[in-house]
Amino acid sequence: MNISILLLFVGLLGSFSPREIAFEEHGIASYYHYSLKGNRMANGERYNPAEYTCAHPSLPFGTLLSVTRKDDPTKVVMVTVTDRGPFVEGRIIDLSRKAAEEIGLLHDGIAEVVITIVSDDAVTP
Q1: Omega into 86 within 30° of 0, i.e. cis?
Q2: Are 57 and 85 in contact (CB under 8 A)?
Q3: Among candidates 43, 32, 102, which has minimal Cα distance to 67?
Q4: Which domains does the chain have, with CATH numbers?
Q5: Category of 98 on φ-ψ map: left (φ > 0), alpha (ψ -120 to 50) or beta
Q6: Torsion angle of alpha carbons 12, 14, 18, 23, nearest 10°?
Q7: Do residues 99 and 72 lie in contact, with contact meaning Cβ atoms separated by under 8 Å?
Q8: What does DSSP assign to residue 63?
Q9: Cβ distance 108 to 18 under 8 Å?
Q10: Which residue in 109, 44, 60, 54 sits closest to 86, CA to CA?
Q11: Between 44 and 3, where is the model more confident?
Q12: Partners of 46 in beta bridges
């Protein structure tokens, strides 16, 4: 193989960043009960029901997510991972009360959603 073609190929491979790798997760969302207000989350902050935050079992703290209802794709909310959970089998995300309200989850309690990463500028505590 011509060395210049090999260098071009290696250069192109190096130009792809991990952010270009798509993440999409489908499953059930629930939300934090209001009584948890003020409790410490896994990232060390206190839970504020008025903020757009969430709990996810594995994504890094600080990751910005888009959460879309499967039954109504016009219902979308952006949340930041601040906690671990949910700890109920079959659920993939717990939303803050404000985020749940935004996508109409307060009435339904749970809903099928699609999660995508908007930004992975995550922080570690």
Answers
A1: yes
A2: yes
A3: 102
A4: 21-119 (2.40.40.10)
A5: alpha
A6: 30
A7: no
A8: -
A9: no
A10: 54
A11: 44
A12: 40
Distance CA 117, CA 28 (A): 17
The answer to whether the CB of 66 falls within 8 A of the CB of 115 is: yes
| Each residue's pLDDT tens digit, 82-124 | 999 999 999 999 999 999 999 999 988 999 999 999 987 765 5
Tell me the one-letter amino acid at 110. I
Length of the chain measured in residues: 125
Q: What is the pLDDT of residue 14?
A: 44
Q: What is the largest CA-CA distance in the chain?
A: 66
Give the number of C-alpha atoms closer than 13 A to the C-alpha of residue 89, restricted to the C-beta side. Answer: 0
The pLDDT value recorded for residue 16 is 43
Q: Which of 55, 58, 76 is nearest to 118 (CA)?
A: 76
Q: Which two tokens stand for residue 46?
A: 């206190």
The DSSP output letter for 88 is S
Q: What is the pTM of this model?
A: 0.79
User: pLDDT digit string (tens) for 31-57?
Assistant: 998 899 999 999 999 999 999 999 999
Write out the two tokens for 84.
């671990």
